[in-house]
């Protein structure tokens, strides 16, 4: 394992073998029973199932009546999912913990599938599987579902980690965690009223190893019920705007706490100009979904200050064209992108500008929230591409000279 990542912590004295499942719930009385039934039907039964009720007002207690002898129940004032999970965490006495959502359903083999990689790889802090999704108020496991494959299964663990830094592609309901690792990173951030699961997965992945189990382990219910605790209650249609808000908190933490080597394609401290450029471009790509255009533009400009001579690698070309094409595009401003015109001074940087312009154009086309944003950002993409093209034509009409940035 790379020196920047450590083996998962040894279980503390008193941890016993097995899995504790923790289900935080808030006003999901109509969905919670199926979630619990699926957990009780596991081929490898959990040692404990704990439901922490975050101040529900919809008859959740009545919905739990059939499970009273098989499920532990706690209740707190409404304070958010992170606070609810943190309340239970100190009571978890098993080696593994599974934080499961109250509106999903687990496949019967889920624990069995997830625990196997952790037994085989004691250094891994968590394992995870894939999921499928369905829009229904009925039984999830018996409905026709749409499978959502994990797109990075063929990548190395390090590149899977980079992909997670970019986007939430590992779901908490589909991940089994070592309890000691969750405790060592400090539990959940209680200021994260949304996105607390993603925040936890990034904090674990940035410190420890992980393993993909290769199987679908749960089903996500797509529904339009409100999301979040009472302080951040929002409609399903507003979820991307709220996620973007809390993604910014995650991005700020990553910028503050993660060394640049965490973003290097080889995971090593970047010592050469080319390695520094690659790491800065990868960080720009990863944080563009969280901190917006301005921070990413700064990293991109600094990348080509480090090295404006070397031809772009295949991975650099990919992160450049993807950087500004993402689902949170509509929540960001792209005025800072005009600063990218500084890249006109060197051939390799101009190639990067063309790719960034194309990505900005496709981001506007795919994700802009209204025609004004679509037009303005799309036009900016064309301007960047056009400026790079004109400057490149000029290269052909003058003698070769230094291309230092």
How is the secondary structure organized here?
Layout: E1 16-25, H1 32-40, E2 48-53, H2 60-63, E3 72-75, H3 81-88, E4 94-99, E5 105-106, H4 110-120, E6 124-135, E7 146-148, H5 157-166, E8 175-178, H6 179-184, H7 196-205, E9 209-222, H8 239-257, H9 273-306, H10 314-322, H11 347-367, H12 371-395
Helix pairs in contact: 5-9, 8-9, 9-10, 10-11, 11-12
Descriptive overview:
With 405 residues, this protein is α/β, with parallel strands linked by helices. It has two domains: 16-253, Spore Coat Polysaccharide Biosynthesis Protein SpsA, Chain A (Alpha-Beta Complex), CATH 3.90.550; 266-395. The protein is 41% helix and 15% strand. The protein is built from twelve helices and nine strands. The chain has helices at 32-40, 60-63, 81-88, 110-120, 157-166, 179-184, 196-205, 239-257, 273-306, 314-322, 347-367, 371-395; strands spanning 16-25, 48-53, 72-75, 94-99, 105-106, 124-135, 146-148, 175-178, 209-222. Strands 1, 2, 3, 4, 5, 6, 7, 8 and 9 form a nine-stranded mixed beta sheet that branches. Helix 2 (60-63) links the parallel strand 2 and strand 3. Helix 9 crosses helix 10 and helix 10 crosses helix 11. It is globular. Residues 400-405 have low confidence and may be disordered.
Give the total of beta strands.
Answer: 9
Instruction: Output the structural class.
Output: alpha/beta
**CATH level-two architecture of the largest domain:** Alpha-Beta Complex
Flag low-confidence runs. Answer: 400-405
> Superfamily at the CATH H level of the largest domain?
Spore Coat Polysaccharide Biosynthesis Protein SpsA, Chain A
Output the CATH topology of the largest domain: Spore Coat Polysaccharide Biosynthesis Protein SpsA, Chain A
The largest sheet, given as strand count, sense and whether it forms a barrel, is: 9 strands, mixed
Strand content range: 15-25%
Percent in helix: 40-55%
Principal-axes shape call: globular
SSE succession: EHEHEHEEHEEHEHHEHHHHH
**CATH class label of the largest domain:** Alpha Beta
Gyration radius over CA = 23 Å
Number of contiguous helices: 12
Compute the separation of the termini in Å. Answer: 36 Å
């Amino acid at each position: 394992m790379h020196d920047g990542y450590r083996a998962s912590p040894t279980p503390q004295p008193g941890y016993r073998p097995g899995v504790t499942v923790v289900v935080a719930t808030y006003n999901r009385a109509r969905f919670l029973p199926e979630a619990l039934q699926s957990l009780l039907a596991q081929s490898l039964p959990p040692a404990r199932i704990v439901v922490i009720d975050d101040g529900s007002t919809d008859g959740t207690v009545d919905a739990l009546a059939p499970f009273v002898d098989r499920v532990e129940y706690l209740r707190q004032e409404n304070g958010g999912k992170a606070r609810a999970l943190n309340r239970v965490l100190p009571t978890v006495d098993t080696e593994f913990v599974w934080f499961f959502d109250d509106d999903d359903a687990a496949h019967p083999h889920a624990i069995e599938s997830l625990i196997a990689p952790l037994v085989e790889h004691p250094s891994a802090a968590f394992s995870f599987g894939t999921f499928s999704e369905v829009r229904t108020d009925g039984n999830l496991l018996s409905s026709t579902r749409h499978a959502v494959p994990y797109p990075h299964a063929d990548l190395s663990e390090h590149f899977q980690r980079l992909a997670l830094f970019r986007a939430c592609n590992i779901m908490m309901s589909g991940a089994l965690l070592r309890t000691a690792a969750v405790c060592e990173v400090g539990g959940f951030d209680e200021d994260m009223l949304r996105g607390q699961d993603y925040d936890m997965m990034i904090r674990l992945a940035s410190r420890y190893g992980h393993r993909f189990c290769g199987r679908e382990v749960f089903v996500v219910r797509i529904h339009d019920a409100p999301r979040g605790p009472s302080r951040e209650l929002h409609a399903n249609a507003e979820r991307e705007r709220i996620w973007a808000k809390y993604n910014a908190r995650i991005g700020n933490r990553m910028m503050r706490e993660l060394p640049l080597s965490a973003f290097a394609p080889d995971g090593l401290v970047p010592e050469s100009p080319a390695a520094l450029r690659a790491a800065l471009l990868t960080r720009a790509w990863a944080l563009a979904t969280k901190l917006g255009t301005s921070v990413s533009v700064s990293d991109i400009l600094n990348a080509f200050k480090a090295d404006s001579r070397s031809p772009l690698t295949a991975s650099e070309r990919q992160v450049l064209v993807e950087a500004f094409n993402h689902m949170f595009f509509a929540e960001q401003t792209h005025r800072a992108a005009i600063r990218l015109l500084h890249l006109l001074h060197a051939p390799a940087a101009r190639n990067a500008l063309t790719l960034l312009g194309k990505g900005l154009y496709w981001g506007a086309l795919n994700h802009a929230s209204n025609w004004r944003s679509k037009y303005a950002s799309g036009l900016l993409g064309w301007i960047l591409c056009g400026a790079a093209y004109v400057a490149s034509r000029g290269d052909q009409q003058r003698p070769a000279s230094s291309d230092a940035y």
